[in-house]
TrEMBL record:
Organism, scientific name: Penicillium fimorum
Family statement: Belongs to the cytochrome P450 family.
PANTHER family, alphabetized: CYTOCHROME P450, P450, PUTATIVE (EUROFUNG)-RELATED
Protein name, as recorded: Cytochrome P450
Any one Gene Ontology BP term: mycotoxin biosynthetic process
Needed cofactors: heme
Pfam families per record: p450
Family matches, as InterPro entries: Cyt_P450, Cyt_P450_CS, Cyt_P450_E_grp-I, Cyt_P450_sf, Cytochrome_P450_monoxygenase
Keywords annotated in UniProt: Heme, Iron, Metal-binding, Monooxygenase, Oxidoreductase
UniProt GO MF annotations: heme binding; iron ion binding; monooxygenase activity; oxidoreductase activity, acting on paired donors, with incorporation or reduction of molecular oxygen
UniProt binding sites for heme: C435
């Protein structure tokens, strides 16, 4: 808003008394240049990194790249984002969690008898089940969504569903959340005044002890990674053997990197998916086109009257599905921007930026979901930005405010393909600090879109509920933005 008010892609704001101003940049090319090619000039903002230090003090998210531990910590968890691990370990667990969500919505649709019902909490809990199962061994008693499905399956009717007003929402009974998942939700909702959680520590310690017992076995089959925690412990075991020392399993580093995967991979994914459901219900033509693309993309599932398998979803390329995902990620604005600090005195679009200045690289507003502000002369850009001019995509900003997956589709010889450079996107960051979990986020969103749209039609909200739902989303989005700046990187 300030950039538009001052008609400039770069502005400064005075946030706190007696402190340096923040510089706000709403321009994709220059932001891309900072993250890809000016990493010695700009690094992690301490102000935003400190948000996480009270909760996960030894997680790489708050470390600067000059810290030798940054790369070491990333290496510790890097295998959990390889295609093999994602497809063979993560995908089946994510698939199972969201199949349970299909079951919950099937029961709710039965009990609602045509009435609408809230879906955001269900998505929130299913996303928690999904990321929990990817990181830790998830037992049936730990699945929040399965417990809810069982409760609803045992319910014969809901009183509110008998209301004569068909637009009256139905409220369902909720199962209590088990202690360990509940502690995760409490911690992620309280980042701004965080201590440690004994419940969280006990949960991770117990899981580590069980895994350590398996990895100490001489049986090779016991060393197969069944979740991200196993993968991290296997890496530590291999390092200990190389260095001729005892493996160190119960370290602060392992605790914090595991828990960091949990909180970063849960709330952000569920928020994006929930916005995706809202956008698709508001744009029925896009939903219809996507469903048709899914039906065409999984012909075996159609023939056999079943939903696509996890393996089919991972291995099938459907350009319009990829395009819709990217459009949802851009328009949901789960991460509103990325924070950097100037490590040296430098220049940005012709303006002197003193060392220590916080720079916010916005991923929304002008040049992203609105037309850019003015035209920046090339000579005001950095040398590296000018040299890279021909290496980025080009797009028409005229319709940037619309929900339009087609913008990510290119055609050549009549064949459609997905082009991730068709529009500016900074949600996951770029360069060496780019989002570690980007592949996981795409996989989760892909699975949830396929399963939910295969089994349900997301209908438009009645007018009486539209305003309330929008207000509810704004409140949730505003709260989440207070700590999500830069959570991905």
């Amino acid at each position: 808003m300030q950039a538009k008010k001052l008609n400039s892609p770069i502005v400064q704001v005075f946030v706190n008394p007696l402190t340096k101003t923040w510089v706000i940049l709403t321009e994709f090319r220059e932001s891309q240049d900072i993250m890809l090619r000016r990493t010695k000039e700009f690094d992690r903002s301490e102000e935003f990194g400190n948000i996480f230090k009270s909760l996960i003090p030894d997680h790489h998210i708050s470390m600067r790249m000059t810290n030798p531990q940054f790369k070491a910590h990333r290496r510790l968890i890097q295998d959990s984002m390889t295609p093999a691990f994602l497809n063979e370990v993560s995908a089946p667990r994510i698939y199972e969690a969201f199949t349970s969500l299909v079951g919950v919505w099937t029961e709710k649709a039965r009990l609602a008898n045509g009435h609408p019902f809230s879906a955001s909490d269900d998505c929130f809990k299913a996303a928690l089940d999904a990321i929990w199962a990817v990181i830790f061994p998830l037992g049936p008693k730990d699945s929040v969504t399965n417990a809810q499905r069982q409760l609803l399956a045992d319910t014969t009717s809901i009183n509110s569903a008998s209301s004569t007003n068909i637009d009256e929402p139905v409220v369902f009974p909720e199962t209590p959340i088990p202690d360990a998942p509940k502690s995760v939700l409490t911690l992620t909702e309280s980042l701004e005044h965080m201590g440690t959680s004994s419940q969280r520590e006990a949960m991770i310690a117990t899981a580590l002890e069980k895994a350590k017992g398996r990895f100490s076995s001489d049986r090779k089959e016991e060393h197969v990674a069944r979740c991200a925690m196993d993968d991290i412990l296997r890496r530590e075991l291999a390092a200990a053997k190389r260095e001729n020392r005892e493996p160190a399993y119960n370290t602060r580093t392992i605790f914090d990197e595991l828990f960091g995967l949990l909180i970063a991979g849960h709330d952000t994914t569920s928020t994006t998916a929930t916005w995706g459901f809202k956008l698709l219900s508001d744009h029925q033509e896009v939903q219809k086109k996507l469903r048709e693309a899914l039906r065409s993309g999984f012909p075996a599932a159609i023939t056999e009257c079943r939903q696509p398998t996890a393996e089919e979803i991972c291995n099938t390329q459907i350009p319009y599905l990829d395009a819709t995902q990217e459009e949802i990620i851009q328009k949901s604005m789960t991460s509103g921007g990325l924070a950097r600090t100037a490590m040296v005195d430098t220049v940005l679009l012709g303006h002197h930026i003193p060392k220590g200045t916080s720079v916010l690289l916005m991923g929304n507003g002008p040049d992203f979901i609105e037309p850019p502000i003015g035209k920046i002369p090339e000579d005001r850009r950095s040398k590296s930005c000018q040299e890279a001019k021909g290496r980025i995509g080009s797009w028409d900003p005229a319709d940037s405010n619309l929900f339009k997956p087609e913008r990510w589709i290119t055609k050549e010889d009549g064949k459609e393909s997905f082009d991730p450079t068709s529009d500016p996107l900074l949600t996951f960051g770029l360069g060496p600090r780019g989002c570690f979990g980007r592949r996981m986020a795409h996989l989760e969103l892909k699975i949830v879109l396929v399963l939910l749209l295969w089994n349900f039609e997301l209908q438009s909200l009645p007018g009486t509920l539209m305003l309330f739902a929008t207000f509810e989303f704004i409140i949730e989005w505003s709260w989440s933005l207070s700590w999500k700046f830069g959570i991905f990187d």
